[in-house]
Amino acid sequence: MKQLLILGAGTAGSMAANRLYRLLDIDEWQITLVDQDPVHYYQPGFLFLPFGINSKRELIKPKLDFVPPKAHFIQSSIEAIEHDHHQVRLGNGMTLRYDILVIATGVDIHPEETPGLTEHEWGQSIHTFYSFQGAVALTEKLRTWTGGRLVLNVVDNPIKCPVAPLEFLMLADWFFRLRGLRDRVELVYATPLPGAFTKPVASKMLGEILATKDIKVESEFLIEHVDPDAKKIVSYDERELGYDLLVSVPLNKGADVIGKSGLGDELNYSPVNKFTLLSDRAPDVFVLGDASNIPTSKAGSVAHFAIDLWSENFIRYTRGLELLPVIDGHANCFIESGFGKGVLIDFNYTQEPLPGRYPLPGVGPFTLLEESEANHWGKLMFRWMYWNILLKGQELPLPAQMSMAGKWTS
Known about the structure:
Blueprint: E1 2-7, H1 11-23, E2 29-35, E3 39-41, E4 60-62, E5 72-75, E6 78-82, E7 87-90, E8 95-97, E9 100-103, E10 107-109, E11 126-127, H2 132-144, E12 148-154, H3 164-178, E13 185-190, H4 200-212, E14 215-218, E15 223-227, E16 232-235, E17 240-242, E18 245-249, E19 252-254, H5 256-260, E20 285-287, H6 300-318, E21 331-338, E22 341-347, E23 356-360, E24 364-368, H7 373-390
Parallel strand pairs: 1-2, 1-9, 2-5, 9-20, 11-18, 12-13, 12-18, 13-14
Antiparallel strand pairs: 3-4, 6-7, 7-8, 10-19, 15-16, 16-17, 21-22, 23-24
């Protein structure tokens, strides 16, 4: 029997396993997933947790709930990918052979790599919402915080869900206004980017929204260290920003095993052909989701659209056919802007976000590059779709490649 080995049972790994389970001949292929964590987290909900929009129990389910029938799930760390021998060594002592390997090990935060960040003030005046435990701790902090300067700092890019820092600040503006504290809170966004976002059109629009909410942007701020005693962050160009509460988006990196196995770049992201997701460094290896170095957002929508296209291509690969250059980096991001409204952006490798209606041209119900209540509800509805449709490998009636239908080009 041929062996399909999937490393990582998070968003991309679970979607891929379930989709391929429907497409492959299960009498010919054995699907095995490996992950050291038995818990699946709905990571977009980490943003909402500190503001009481989601509860902890809504964000957690067992990973076994999303393992397809007859597939194997092995809970273990991964010691090494020995791609020259088509095998993987696990932390539990097992060695697994594969015919095709799918790497979906995602990314994680590394606050320890920023000097001063994880010293005695970590969890006190310094927090993050980029982990479940961090979001829980920040929830408790915001319940009793009475005001001051809140600085949200992104250490470096790329990061998971690059719009999340903006969303946090806009939700914080709403949260503190509802509590009657906004006049006692200064909100500052310290970003290494030259503006609010990576795409110029969206960056301009989002920057204007931040300005109307009196959220200051400190651009091109490349943090060098944190001084937790003086409560300030210092950039490489020696700018200093004081804070009363620091919310950090720490350095994001791929799994260590990717780098150790010779499959990663300096941040342990694995180089791939961006149109097919086939590894540049090893035969019979695909890299899905956040683990790859494709030049687009590290977000669930990117993984979903890419896997929709990749899965049919994967079947071609198993039959010895040439892979088609089908993946266009399609990303679709709802951005919470507070007060029950949101913004939607839709873009890909080459196309900037444009205004318009989505997904039905002229109808919507969602508006692009414009605040609306429908966009807010679209963001909230996504959690149900994630648990019940996407992770189970079912298709949505949406084009996986970016469509220009409904967009205004002038």
